[in-house]
Amino acid sequence: MNEGKSVIIVGVGGQGTLLASRILGNAMMNEGYDVKVSEVHGMSQRGGSVVTYVRWGKEVASPVIETGEADVVLAFEQLEAARFLPYLKLGGTMVTNTQCISPMPVVTGAAQYPRELLTEMEKLGVNLFAVDALSLAEQAGSVKAVNVVLLGAMAKQMDVEKEIWLRAVENSVPERFLELNRKAFELGYQSGY
After folding, report:
1. By the 8 A CB rule, do 97 and 191 touch?
2. What is the per-residue DSSP string for 112-129?
3. Which domains does the chain show, CATH number per domain?
4. Residue-averaged pLDDT of the chain
5. With bands split at pLDDT 50, 70 and 90, how would you rate the model's confidence at 127?
6. What's CA 47's distance to the chain center, in Å?
7. Which of 42, 35, 38 is nearest to 18 (CA)?
8. Can you tell me the distance from the alpha carbon of 59 to that of 89, in angstroms, rounded to the nearest whole number?
């Protein structure tokens, strides 16, 4: 893996973006990198955006990722993927869930959920990998495992041994949820590109 990588993890409140960033940070620390993680909370309690930045390399001064700097945007929902597309660097990868979660303006009828977001991203030439993480999470045993499914899908394309990732999962989730999360990671990893 090249020095200095940046991942933005985006979703809505309750989707587990913070756990995903913890697992990613743990895996990169186990690889010997300096890791910085920053959490930006929106109205997460009300289903608003939650964003985390994870940067690693030989030496990282700040976790902040500016527009056009992210190697990967890991999106737990399509609208969040579209919102954070400008942060993706040229040649970067968008890994997104195919799930759509309506924000409050859509729920109240004040707005409509944009159509064909993934198709529009493909038309822009985005290196896009979309996975039905919700179905895979259900297969693993819980819809709450979408985050770990998506992390597994992203991990597949990274130059890090799968065992490092699994150890990071073990170090980051409570024992009672370990088997579920291992299965979720594996299902995501197998769906990986």
Report:
1. no
2. -PPS-HHHHHHHTT-EEE
3. 5-105+113-191 (3.40.920.10)
4. 91
5. very high
6. 17
7. 38
8. 20
- The DSSP letter of residue 99 is -
Q: What tokens were used for 172?
A: 């980051």
Cα separation, 11 vs 133, in Å, equals 13
Residue with tokens 């697992």: 23
Q: Could you tell me which residues are beta bridge partners of residue 40?
A: 51
On whether the CB atoms of residues 150 and 157 are closer than 8 A, the answer is: no
Q: How confident is the model over 56-114, as pLDDT tens digits?
A: 999 998 898 999 999 999 999 999 999 999 999 999 999 999 998 888 788 888 888 88
pLDDT at 43: 54
Of 1, 34, 7, 3, nearest in space to 154 by CA: 7
Measured between alpha carbons, how far is 153 from 130 in angstroms, rounded to an integer?
9
Nearest to 66, CA basis, from 56, 57, 55, 76: 55
Structure confidence at residue 2 (pLDDT) = 43
The set of residues, in sequence order, having a beta carbon less than 8 Å from that of 18 and lying 6+ positions away, is 39, 50, 52
